[in-house]
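Here is one chain, start to finish.
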Amino acid sequence: MNKHAFADASTLLGRSLRHITRSPDTIITTALTPIAMMLLFVYVLGGAIRTGTDNYVNYVLPGIMIMAIASGIAYTALRLFTDMKGGIFERFQSMPIARSAVLWAHVGTSMVANMLTLVIILGVAFVMGFRTSAGLGAWLAVAGILALLTLALTWLAVIPGLAAQTMEGATGFSYPLIFLPFISSAFAPTETMPGPVRAFAENQPVTSIVNTIQALFAEQPVGDDIWVALAWCVGILVVSYAFAMAAYRRKIS
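Its structure:
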């Protein structure tokens, strides 16, 4: 993105963020379901799940944050779909602004909104007893992985946001992503799962990301999980970006 496009995207980002500040229920709603799930698993189911740790909220928090990101990007697709159907894109395209600025503004809005949601969830987790001895480097690594995952999934959300014909079609893609943590190491060790389920759980992106964040919070070696997690995030980002930009060019051509 050149300097002109960056300035245009920053201006449009401010517009989108003002919409969110006038309607903060989006962030609150996005955070509520993962927080409810965290309360359910910690205070109702957690006592029956053997994870090798005495503090189940420490174990479950990474999966809850991934679930929140998957929920949050559904609103990105919805905002994009609403702008498309409302003719906002055509209006902006008639103005002397960079063509990609509108899209980058939506991506930036998704990043800010999702980071705020994660901060809210982290605050609730601390109230519920989450504790970590992780240093600054580990915290930065956790933030970096979550930001990279959010960016990758945001570009994935751009595709249905541009291509869907209905509101349900724009947001429906997120449901499998929201439930993906349930078939991973997010809530229970994969060793307790039957063969085919365990094989799927251990070879899908959520498990490596969860394992990496759990290890960073516990100040334990991350092993190969961090490289697998980064490979998944970068791979999803590259593929999603390519398809999203192709869909965008078709829309504005």
